[in-house]
Design goal:
Keywords: Membrane, Transmembrane, Transmembrane helix
Order of helices and strands: HHHEEHHEEEEEEEEEHHEEEEEEEHHHHE
Strand order of the largest sheet: 14-15-16-18-17
Protein name: Tat pathway signal sequence domain protein
Organism: Collinsella aerofaciens
Radius of gyration: 59 Å
Shape: elongated
Number of helices: 11
Number of strands: 19
Structural class: alpha+beta
Helix content: 40-55%
């Protein structure tokens, strides 16, 4: 029986402690609870005991406040009661200008009572000071203290659980956004350079895309971009890009397709990949474009690069026409070059040579056996250079007024000597009237042309006259200029006859 009685007492104490713990949670803030008993000093214990004795004394003797309260109640009983039939005056019915503070009916001699209800008139729960909280904590039984701590921990756990739930919800929301983006087509831009291409009138550039998207699915498709590299839409993932074929410009231009491949990672919408993927499409010579290149470009234009199959067909025809015109032009040019080469080619019984391209159309020739004279077209009396074949061991003397300008050994026992007037010297001297026995006199336009033919336009006539030759009559610099030029453009072409 003693054990049962003690158990019941413990249970009653526990219940009382729980109630007091809940009540204390309403009064005591978490910051005012101290859990370390070692921090209480002896002075606080003395003050607590003295306070306890004062409270016992208060239980014996009534306080002055209580006595005053009883006197006030007696005075109130002496006041006459208000007439119950008097009409009740509501606050809402009072005029706006009337004050809410008025004299109560029947209490003319009593002081005015303010009927205004203010928040300050409502008693608020008292909050213990830090010292009072410490005293209560010290006097609190261990079991009661443990229950209070358990209550605080429970509140903290509830608050922590709410925070975790909010964070977990945020994480789930972000995961949902990422999952949605993983299944959203992203527009990306690459870099392309194709001179003269306008995709609004020509076809777009076909781009071969292969790789794997964010779902792990394999991708292999052809997408089309304009001249600015825009037009590709893909799911996030890793891809390899390359140019599938040439586009076709409105004028029929076909481009050289780059063979490079570039790997890119698509991550967001509007992503600019031009720094990682840039393709340069060069314009080749139109006559080198093949039928296979045109057919491939037309195929992709029809499949998506052009507005319609009919537009793709027209672009193909433009490309073919442009190529054919270029081929014909090249053929015509080659035929003319062959005719010109034939006209420039000269031959004797011992040697052959080609008239320099710079001279072609401006000179003519006459031939006498193994002697070949090249003269100014339309003026056979103005020779530029005369070629004479001389057997080895024999001497060569140029005509009067001519200078040996160079020689070419044929390797068959003969040497061809080139001789003629040094026009860069003779012409300026003749014009100046300093030459005693001029070969002839020359009009100014003829003089300029002779200087240009014999020097390859390296110097103007004025430079030849005023600088290279000068007024002293020396011909060394002018002679060297002409001989050097002939050694470059004429003498190398002189070969022995087959």
């Amino acid at each position: 029986m003693k054990d049962e009685t003690m158990g019941q007492e413990d249970a009653a104490q526990d219940a009382e402690a729980c109630a007091e713990a809940l009540e204390s949670l309403d009064r005591i803030s978490l910051d005012e609870i101290a859990f370390d008993d070692s921090g209480v000093d002896v002075q606080d214990e003395s003050e607590a005991e003295a306070q306890s004795d004062d409270q016992d004394a208060d239980d014996v003797e009534p306080a002055e406040d209580e006595a005053d309260h009883e006197d006030t109640e007696c005075e109130a009983d002496d006041q006459p009661e208000s007439d119950t039939s008097e009409e009740t005056i509501l606050l809402d019915s009072l005029p706006a200008e009337d004050s809410l503070t008025r004299e109560l009916p029947g209490l003319g001699s009593a002081p005015a009572v303010d009927e205004t209800i203010a928040m300050g008139d409502i008693p608020l729960p008292s909050v213990p000071s830090a010292r009072e909280a410490e005293v209560r904590h010290r006097k609190m039984s261990p079991k009661r203290r443990n229950l209070m701590v358990a209550g605080v921990v429970a509140v903290a756990l509830v608050a922590g659980g709410a925070g975790y739930a909010a964070w977990n919800g945020y994480q789930q929301e972000q995961a949902a956004v990422l999952a949605a983006n993983a299944h959203t087509m992203m527009s990306v831009q690459i870099g392309v350079h194709a001179a003269g291409l306008d995709c609004s009138t020509g076809s777009k550039i076909p781009v071969q895309v292969s790789g794997q998207d964010s779902d792990g699915s394999s991708v292999s498709e052809t997408l089309y971009v304009d001249e600015h590299g825009r037009g590709i839409k893909l799911l996030p993932g890793d891809y390899t890009l390359s140019i599938a074929a040439s586009p076709i410009a409105a004028d029929g231009t076909i481009y050289t397709v780059p063979t490079t491949k570039t790997q890119v990672a698509v991550k967001s919408d509007g992503q600019d990949l031009s720094a990682q993927a840039t393709f340069k499409l060069k314009v080749p010579s139109a006559d080198t474009v093949t039928d296979d290149q045109i057919d491939a470009a037309a195929k992709y234009a029809e499949e998506g690069g052009a507005n319609s199959a009919a537009a793709a067909k027209m672009l193909q025809q433009a490309a073919t026409a442009r190529r054919d015109a270029a081929v014909n032009a090249v053929s015509a040019s080659e035929a003319q070059a062959a005719r010109d080469a034939d006209a420039r080619h000269k031959a004797t019984d011992l040697y052959q040579l080609d008239i320099p391209v710079e001279w072609y159309g401006k000179v003519a020739t006459w031939q006498n056996g193994n002697t070949l004279c090249i003269y100014l077209d339309g003026d056979s009396d103005t020779p530029i250079v005369t070629l004479v074949a001389v057997r080895e061991g024999e001497s060569f003397t140029p005509d009067e007024g001519d200078t040996v300008l160079g020689a070419a050994n044929l390797g068959n026992g003969y040497t061809v000597y080139a001789s003629g007037p040094v026009y860069p010297y003779v012409v300026p001297q003749t014009i100046n009237g300093q030459t005693q026995n001029p070969v002839s006199t020359y009009p100014m336009d003829t003089a300029i042309e002779l200087v240009e033919l014999t020097t390859g336009n390296r110097y103007t006539y004025s430079q030849i006259k005023n600088v290279l030759v000068g007024k002293d009559g020396k011909a060394d610099a002018a002679t060297k200029l002409e001989t050097d030029y002939l050694a470059q453009i004429l003498l190398p072409s002189i070969k022995a006859q087959d």
